[in-house]
Amino acid sequence: MTSRTNTPTWKPANSACVSLAALVGLGVVAISACGSDDAPTKAAYVEDANAICVDVNVERERVAAATFSSTTEPPSVEEMQAFTAAFAPIFRDKLDELRDLTAPRGDEQAVKDLTDAAAKLADGIEQLATDPELARRMLETDTDVPGSEEADRLAAEYGLTKCADGSTQ
Fold first, then answer.
1. Which secondary structure element, helix H or strand E, spans residue 133, and what is its range?
2. Cα–Cα distance, 145 to 128 (Å, whole number)
3. What is the pLDDT of residue 28?
4. Alpha helices of 28-67 — where are they, by DSSP H?
5. Ramachandran class of 35: left when φ > 0, alpha when ψ lies in -120 to 50, beta otherwise
6. Which residue, of 39, 65, 137, 154, has the greatest Cβ tally within 10 A?
7. Cα–Cα dist 7/15, whole Å
8. Range 46-50 contact pairs with CB under 8 angstroms and sequence separation of 24 or more
9. Which positions ≥6 away from 132 have C-beta within 8 Å?
10. pLDDT digits (tens, 9 = 90+) for 62-80
């Protein structure tokens, strides 16, 4: 590890997806009742969702620093599985926080679509934690966590920049 940061510099697509999509998926998970008088503006929703995404990104970095033995080399299958096993419940908890946010009026379907994509990403993270063959294939081919592409795309389209870029600030 480098002395200036605990964050691994190795970030292939699969690691980025766990990060980005996790955040993306998380920030996209708010569903609320239609017609609520206290529905937030889209800007307020995005601000709240991005704050949750920053939290999950910070947690992702903490788990990565504690799990990966190298900051410059790809992790082993065992390290990737340990990382995703530790990160999956954190992601699910943050997903629940996002679901608790009220969607802006008129954006209920877009938020539902984001929620659905985030749930698929959470399933992909959990699958990676329990399937060593999937972890091996992902590491060998530098592919994304199942569900991450859709979650990333929808988050970016909705304006959840902290979710889409994995930012910790």
1. helix 132-141
2. 7
3. 40
4. 42-67
5. left
6. 154
7. 12
8. 46/158, 46/159, 46/160, 48/101, 49/98, 49/101, 49/160, 49/163, 50/160, 50/161, 50/162, 50/163
9. 77, 81
10. 999 999 998 888 899 999 9
Whether residue 5 is predicted with pLDDT greater than 70 in this model: the reply is: no
Whole-prediction pTM value? 0.77
148 close to 124: Cβ distance less than 8 angstroms: yes
- pLDDT of 91-132, one tens digit each? 999 999 999 899 999 999 999 999 889 999 999 999 999 999
For the chain, the structural domain boundaries read 13-26+40-165
Cβ distance 108 to 34 under 8 Å? yes
Please report which helix (H) or strand (E) contains residue 96, including its range. Answer: helix 77-99
